[in-house]
Design goal:
The complex is a heterodimer of chains A (284) and B (247). Chain A has 284 residues and is an alpha/beta fold. Helices cover 42% and strands 21% of the residues of chain A. Chain A has helices spanning 16-21, 42-53, 73-86, 115-132, 154-165, 173-182, 187-193, 228-241, 257-283; strands spanning 7-10, 28-32, 55-59, 90-94, 97-100, 103-109, 137-139, 146-147, 168-172, 199-205, 208-212, 215-219, 246-249. An eight-stranded parallel beta barrel of chain A has the order 1-2-3-4-7-9-10-13, surrounded by four helices. In chain A, strands 5-6 form a two-stranded antiparallel ribbon. In chain A, helix 4 crosses helix 5 (154-165) and helix 8 packs parallel to helix 9. The longest helix of chain A has 27 residues, at 257-283. The two termini of chain A are 33 Å apart. Chain B has 247 residues and is mainly α. Chain B has two domains: 1-107, no CATH class; 126-247, no CATH class. Chain B has helices at 7-18, 34-56, 58-64, 66-79, 94-100, 110-125, 135-138, 162-168, 202-212, 217-221, 227-235, and strands at residues 28-29, 146-149, 154-158, 183-187, 197-200, 239-243. In chain B, the strands form two sheets. A three-stranded antiparallel β-sheet of chain B has the order 3-4-5, with helices on both faces. Chain B has a two-stranded antiparallel ribbon with strand order 2-6. In chain B, helix 2 packs across helix 4 and helix 5 packs antiparallel against helix 6. The chains are: A alpha/beta (284), B mainly alpha (247). At the A-B interface, helix 2, helix 3, strand 5, strand 6 and helix 4 of A face helix 1, strand 1 and helix 2 of B.
């Protein structure tokens, strides 16, 4: 049970009738786990319908794996129930924290990369994979600040998490570009150091930009088309890895379904090019 | 023995506290425009929670205006943050917050409109249920029968004309004069996953409350004719089973 190495789209309920008219327009749809934690009704019915013709990725935004405190076991059990009910082809979460004490903050917040946070996160992922009874993917964050306390590079940190816990990784190429631009580092150096063999899914999204005195500040807004430099980095990754499940996320100022399909098709062209490239290598 | 310091927890506490005040926490970089960078997180948290609240309470937002709603949502989110990542569970305290929030004291019907919007949200996400074969109601004397209603069914009452206020603030609504309160409604999810607000009169509302409480049809009707409420329930598939003394 894995996602197909095709383009996928974030599911927008307002597009459900169009999606039914164009079944199979993309290979998979992704939903946020927390939107499917009600008892019944339209959300579950739509997801079941989608799953008949497409693979499903359930993407959590609320587990706070990067939190200093213990995981919320009630939430972990809710996740287990959603996964048991819908049997998705993939489950993923974030290298981030989003709750403090009992309060949930509705954002993916950054953390220092230290021996201590590494041990905490690995324990949280071990617990998650054990309760859910499956391997999860962990997504690299888009960040706007760094931490003086950090002693690990993010790529080394993710490599070590994957090694210790056996989890896979979700490589968000837009997040790589946003973070590297914001921290005045090189996204290609990041991708060269990224443990691509653990990547089970790619995310692509649009960002907003504003000018700081010394350069741009990019904000991971999911409100625009994927930027050209991000497409270029994505093509370079796919040339190294071969085709991977590749999701286009567009969550704010959502355009019509045809625009989303066109974005997904752009990923599809790059994926097909990688397949042709692989055949050419074998034929040579 | 001294307690081991926990730098991760300490950093997170400083970061969290700074989300609600105008100060960037220590220990962050890069120094270039650091306040602006940290502001992205403060904006994301505050905007994210405000947007989530406006999705749950669109008519409250319409009644007070978007800018006012955003400011009020920030006050609510800081004092009543979500207690879990399941946002459909957030906002239960919002009617009580509105009742006590001085700047909206001149709009005393807001808490009731908020309760209506909460009831619609609960109905939208309520558990699925089967739909009963209605023929049992037609066979013989139905007064001893108990109707098990769908989990989405809510009986709603307001001392204000909150049902009309809600309806007048739906997209494309015809502007009509506002009646005097109180008002009553049946709120439930239909087969097509809509959640209509179906106006009732006081007697129908009382019958519905007794049916929800599990009283048999005869006692629930209490001398009134329950046909109208039964018709609504049947029309929208809201009776999930019919139980009673089978002869």
């Amino acid at each position: 049970m894995t996602l197909p190495s095709t383009p996928g789209l974030g599911f927008k309920p307002e597009h459900f009738p169009k999606i039914r008219d164009r079944r199979g327009a993309v290979g998979f749809y992704e939903v946020h786990a927390e939107n499917y934690m009600g008892a019944g009704g339209a959300p579950h019915a739509m997801l079941e319908d989608l799953h008949q013709d497409h693979a499903i990725s359930i993407h959590g935004v609320g587990l706070s794996i990067g939190g200093a405190g213990p995981l919320d076991t009630d939430h972990l059990n809710r996740l287990r129930q959603v996964l048991e009910r819908h049997q998705p082809e993939s489950f993923s979460e974030h290298l981030a924290w989003s709750s403090h004490g009992a309060a949930w903050l509705n954002d993916l917040l950054p953390l220092p990369y230290t021996d201590q946070t590494l041990a905490t996160i690995c324990a949280h992922i071990d617990q998650t994979q054990s309760v859910l009874g499956r391997r999860m993917l962990l997504e690299n964050p888009a960040t706007y600040v760094t931490f003086d306390d950090s002693t690990w590079a993010e790529t080394d940190f993710l490599t070590e998490i994957a090694r210790r816990t056996g989890c896979g990784l979700l490589l968000d190429v837009n997040n790589v570009f946003v973070s590297a631009t914001n921290h005045r580092t090189d996204p290609r150096a990041y991708l060269a150091a990224f443990p691509l063999k653990h990547v089970g899914e790619i995310h692509l999204a649009g960002h907003e930009a504003e000018d700081l005195p010394d350069g741009p500040l990019l904000i991971d807004s999911h409100s625009r088309p994927v930027a050209d430099p991000v497409w270029t980095l994505y093509a370079e990754v796919i040339a190294r890895t071969g085709p991977l499940p590749s999701l286009v996320e567009w969550d704010n100022d959502v355009p019509d379904f045809e625009t989303l399909i066109a974005e997904a098709a752009r990923a599809g062209t790059i994926l097909k090019g990688a397949l042709r490239g692989a055949r050419d290598v074998r034929a040579a | 023995m001294s307690v081991q310091p926990d730098p991760h927890a300490a950093m997170q506490a400083r970061f969290h506290d700074a989300l609600w005040v105008q100060a960037t926490p220590d220990g962050l970089g890069p120094q270039e425009a650091l306040d602006r960078r940290f502001l992205v997180y403060r904006n994301n948290v505050q905007h994210g929670l405000s947007s989530a609240l406006s999705q749950r309470f669109p008519v409250i937002e319409r009644l007070v205006g978007t800018e006012f709603f955003k400011a009020m949502a920030r006050v609510f989110a800081a004092s009543h943050p979500p207690q879990s990542p399941v946002m459909i569970d957030w906002g239960g305290d919002f009617p009580a917050f509105l009742a006590a929030f001085e700047p909206v004291a001149k709009l005393p019907y807001l808490p009731d409109v908020a309760r209506l919007e909460l009831a619609r949200g609960h109905a939208y996400h309520a558990a699925d249920a089967s739909v009963a074969d209605p023929s049992a109601l037609a066979a013989g004397d139905p007064s001893d029968l108990c109707l098990i209603l769908a989990p989405s069914v809510r009986a709603y009452r307001s001392d204000w004309p909150a049902v009309s206020i809600w309806a007048l603030n739906q997209p494309g609504a015809q502007q009509t004069p506002l009646p005097q309160g109180p008002q009553f409604a049946l709120i439930a999810r239909t087969r097509g996953y809509d959640v209509p607000v179906l106006a009732l009169d006081a007697a129908q509302h009382a019958v519905l409350c007794r049916l929800i409480a599990g009283e048999p049809l005869g006692r629930a009707a209490a001398g009134t004719d329950p046909t109208a409420i039964l018709t609504l329930l049947l029309q929208h598939g809201l009776i999930s089973s019919i139980e009673g003394d089978t002869p």
